[in-house]
Amino acid sequence: MVAKDVARLWEELRHRDPEEKLGWITQLAQNPSEDSIEVLLDVLQQESWFLRDQAARVLATMGEPVLGPLVEYLGSGLWYTRASAVTALGRMGNPRAAAPLVGMLNDPNRTVRDAVWDALLALCRNELATRELAQAFDALPERARRFALDGLLERDAEAAGQVVLYMEEPAQAQEIPAPEPREGDLSWKDVVGGEGEAKQAAR
């Protein structure tokens, strides 16, 4: 679909109610093609939060064909496009998104960073992504790694706990099924031996 056609579609949608817009996006998702995927990705660059959110939802269901383009959109100059791409990747839950998402924790925009935390927690809840998340965190400098793990554990200690366990004892985590987490089993102090350096520096 050429740029002129896309521009015409946005002009038409501007005067329609939300239900019509949602129906149009849903129709594109039901008949995926290179053109429809291109249009849905372009929605992430629109100013309408409603359209971006709905497009992110349907893109998250499309799997591999949109994984690469969504990762590319993480480098967009528009903060809301980056945030929408992050949201779509989090909802998709593909383990290959772990490293790109971890790399977005230093985004200058707070809304984007908040979306990254949500996306990483979604991946933490996906057992298939544990190894990739652990590798992505291990690749960070020590202080950045502590900050990232601290943030995840504060938001959801149970979800992040398996990733922390894998990082500490990867062989054991692969061979032995992890027990159900219990209160007091894991704390941030156990992981780094004290309060996160990044939090201390911020005080």
TrEMBL record:
Q: List the Gene3D superfamilies hit by this protein, alphabetically.
A: Leucine-rich Repeat Variant
Q: Where is the stretch described as Disordered? A: 171-203
Q: Which domain of life is it from?
A: Bacteria
The record's GO molecular-function terms, alphabetically, read: oxidoreductase activity
Query: Which spans are transmembrane here?
Result: none
Q: Which InterPro entries match?
A: ARM-like, ARM-type_fold, PBS_lyase_HEAT
PANTHER family for the chain = DEOXYHYPUSINE HYDROXYLASE, PBS LYASE HEAT-LIKE PROTEIN
Protein name per Swiss-Prot or TrEMBL: HEAT repeat domain-containing protein
Query: According to the entry, what is the taxonomic lineage of the organism?
Result: Bacteria, Candidatus Eiseniibacteriota
